[in-house]
């Protein structure tokens, strides 16, 4: 038993303060907490405002610096306006030339290829007559009715005449032409025996799109190549 019970002293506690005093104390305590919260919130708002103002000032300084840089660059660009204009005109002219010269053909390289292809067989080319499709403003040039054996698009035709030691040499020449990419569909139209030169022949061969080249389009390959 506790000493309190042993002495039979009753445990009695009571608040003798008036209710108005307790309520006043609670009100003052609540007011203090409200004031503290308002001060804390006001401090946070002031800190946020100061940070935002500093960022705004920094952004304005950066904007001013960028504006000055742009003005300097524009002033320098005006100094070279003529050069820029000439460069733009050159670019425009190059584009126009590429369009106009899209069907440019290096006839010299093509003729050298036709001649050199027959050299291993002892073929001598005496004459070449060529024409591109629609080059004269009319219809398509005369060409073989067969599609290109190498899968390329035909754009014209050549008529080749020459001499060779025998018909086997002419056949070998035709086979060699068939392996090229710049021409296709070689077709012998005439072969005649000549007592002095061996045989004379004439053949037609189509010009393919692979033969198109020029300064403003696809670079031309060296003459004599495929």
From TrEMBL:
Swiss-Prot/TrEMBL keywords: Membrane, Transmembrane, Transmembrane helix
Transmembrane feature ranges: 30-51
Name of protein: Uncharacterized protein
Species whose genome carries this gene: Actinoplanes nipponensis
């Amino acid at each position: 038993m506790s000493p309190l019970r042993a002495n039979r002293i009753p445990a009695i506690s009571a608040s003798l303060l008036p209710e108005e005093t307790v309520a006043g104390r609670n009100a003052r305590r609540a007011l203090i907490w409200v004031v503290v919260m308002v001060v804390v919130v006001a401090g946070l708002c002031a800190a946020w405002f100061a940070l935002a103002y500093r960022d705004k000032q920094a952004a304005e300084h950066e904007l001013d610096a960028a504006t000055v840089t742009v003005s300097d660059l524009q002033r320098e660009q005006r100094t070279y306006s003529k050069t820029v204009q000439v460069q733009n005109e050159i670019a425009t002219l190059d584009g126009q030339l590429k369009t106009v010269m899209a069907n440019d053909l290096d006839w010299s390289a093509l003729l050298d290829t036709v001649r050199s292809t027959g050299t291993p067989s002892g073929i001598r080319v005496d004459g070449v007559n060529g024409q591109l499709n629609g080059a004269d403003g009319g219809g398509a040039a005369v060409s073989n009715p067969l599609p290109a054996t190498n899968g390329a698009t035909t754009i014209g035709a050549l008529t080749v005449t020459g001499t060779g030691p025998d018909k086997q040499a002419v056949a070998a020449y035709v086979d060699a032409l068939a392996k090229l990419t710049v021409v296709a569909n070689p077709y012998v139209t005439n072969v005649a025996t000549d007592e002095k030169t061996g045989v004379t022949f004439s053949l037609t061969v189509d010009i393919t799109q692979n033969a198109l080249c020029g300064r403003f389009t696809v670079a031309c390959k060296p003459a004599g190549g495929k």
